[in-house]
């Protein structure tokens, strides 16, 4: 063979054939070097065996997908037919499928997509499926909690992609199940799986909202002339109409906005508006975080709102007590009492801008539950609330 392509025999041949002869000579020399070395020959035989085994596995899977197709192979009726139903040719040979339509070719390409996971063991599949599910459910929860369109779309697409990855890990059994439902075409199966994931995520979002499990805080920036502010909502337990006795019609109540304690840290620009849309009255304690001292305590009647002004810059915690029938001596409600702490500190700042104005904070807290919040309240015990409310007055304006 080396004599036929030796460059000396093609000395008068065109440049193209001489170059081809040199390349062929190099290939023959490399093959001879491998076959003449026993160690390299064993390594070559081993690699060839692995390659042929992989090719056989691919053909078997391709044949299995053809046999499950809704349109089986049919042999040619004429004298030029080169294989009959279910026949297979060796790798690399000229194989012509005679199935009617594109069904056979589509099934082969769809099976090839499963080659990515073919070498994985069941343990590896389970491990990667658990990882994908962990991140998928985390993002699905973020999707249910999302309040903006951008965040919702991003978390929806990312969680759907992770769940689709789990589907790809177990593609074969899922495809067989869909085939039993008469969904045998790959595109039908693909859209069915993707659509099922999208529908389940949407159902989870709707259920989360309708079920009232949306956390009850929503912050949005507003412009208030020279200042800026935010809106916050927090749920307090609402009274059940069946639990209110006739005596509640004469329950004691204070005027809306009544001060329970003397106001401290006055002279600021910050404002806090509390909207009480519940059926019970509420007492609001604004606590200065660095000293844990109540600087404002005021009364908000059911169905009313009140704005506390003059709050200085700083960090503040908010505590609520809700109920009916206010006892002025004990400074607490007699019935249907609940105590909660708002789950986020309120920040008040005062900063001048370039227009000779001061930007400051306005916060609005809505006590009734609303859909679309993202901060939860924390229950506190009666002793903690009473200790704050009954602190000794330090005097001055601390």
How does this structure look, described?
The chain has 8 helices and 12 strands. It is an alpha+beta fold and 398 residues long. Among the domains are: 116-210, no CATH class; 221-240 and 249-389, Immunoglobulins (Immunoglobulin-like, Sandwich), CATH 2.60.40.10. Strands 1, 2, 3, 6, 10 and 11 form a 6-stranded mixed β-sheet that branches. The longest helix is centred in the N-terminal third of the chain and has 30 residues, at 38-67. The radius of gyration is 38 Å and the shape is elongated. The N and C termini lie far apart (103 Å). Residues 67-113 and 212-249 have low confidence and may be disordered.
Radius of gyration from CA coordinates: 38 Å
Averaging pLDDT over every residue, what do you get? 75
Binned, the helix content reads 25-40%
| Record field, number of beta strands | 12
Helix run count: 8
**Order of SSEs, N→C?**
HHHHHHHEEEEEEEEEEEEH
As for the CATH topology of the domain at 221-240 and 249-389, it is Immunoglobulin-like
CATH superfamily (homologous) name of the domain at 221-240 and 249-389: Immunoglobulins
What topology emerges from the helices and strands here?
Layout: H1 15-36, H2 38-67, H3 103-112, H4 122-145, H5 149-169, H6 171-180, H7 186-210, E1 221-224, E2 227-233, E3 270-276, E4 281-288, E5 293-300, E6 304-311, E7 314-327, E8 332-341, E9 346-348, E10 350-352, E11 358-366, E12 378-379, H8 382-389
Parallel strand pairs: 2-11, 3-11
Antiparallel strand pairs: 1-2, 3-6, 4-5, 4-7, 7-8, 7-9, 8-12, 10-11
């Amino acid at each position: 063979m080396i004599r036929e392509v030796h460059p000396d025999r093609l000395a008068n041949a065109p440049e193209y054939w001489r170059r081809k002869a040199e390349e062929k000579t190099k290939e023959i020399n490399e093959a001879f070097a491998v076959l003449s070395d026993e160690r390299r020959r064993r390594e070559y035989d081993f690699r060839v065996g692995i390659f042929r085994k992989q090719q056989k596995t691919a053909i078997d899977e391709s044949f299995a997908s053809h046999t499950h197709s809704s349109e089986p192979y049919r042999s040619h009726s004429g004298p030029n037919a080169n294989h009959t139903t279910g026949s297979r040719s060796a790798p690399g040979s000229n194989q012509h499928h005679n199935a009617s339509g594109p069904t056979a070719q589509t099934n082969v390409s769809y099976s090839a997509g499963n080659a990515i996971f073919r070498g994985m063991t069941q343990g590896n599949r389970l491990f990667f499926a658990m990882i994908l599910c962990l991140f998928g459910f985390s993002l699905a929860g973020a999707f249910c909690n999302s309040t903006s369109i951008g965040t919702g779309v991003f978390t929806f697409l990312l969680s759907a992609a992770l769940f689709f990855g789990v589907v790809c890990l177990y593609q074969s059994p899922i495809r067989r199940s869909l085939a039993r439902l008469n969904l045998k075409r790959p595109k039908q199966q693909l859209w069915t799986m993707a659509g099922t994931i999208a529908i389940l995520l949407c159902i989870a979002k709707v259920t989360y909202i309708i079920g009232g499990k949306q956390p009850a805080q929503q912050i949005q920036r507003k412009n208030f002339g020279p200042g800026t502010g935010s809106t916050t909502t927090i749920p307090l337990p609402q009274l059940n109409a069946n639990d209110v006795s006739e005596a509640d019609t004469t329950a004691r109540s204070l005027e809306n906005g009544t001060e329970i304690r003397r106001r401290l840290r006055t002279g600021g620009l910050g404002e806090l508006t509390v909207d009480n849309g519940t059926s019970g009255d509420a007492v609001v304690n604004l606590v200065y975080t660095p000293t844990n001292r109540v600087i404002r305590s005021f009364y908000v009647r059911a169905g009313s709102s009140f704005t506390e002004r003059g709050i200085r810059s700083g960090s503040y915690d908010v505590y609520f007590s809700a109920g009916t029938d206010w006892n002025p001596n004990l400074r607490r409600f007699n019935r249907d009492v609940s105590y909660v702490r708002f789950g986020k500190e309120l920040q008040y700042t005062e900063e001048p801008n370039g227009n000779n104005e001061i930007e400051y904070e306005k916060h609005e807290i809505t006590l009734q539950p609303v859909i679309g919040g993202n901060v939860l309240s924390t229950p506190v015990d009666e002793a903690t609330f009473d200790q704050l409310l009954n602190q000794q007055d330090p005097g001055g304006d601390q």
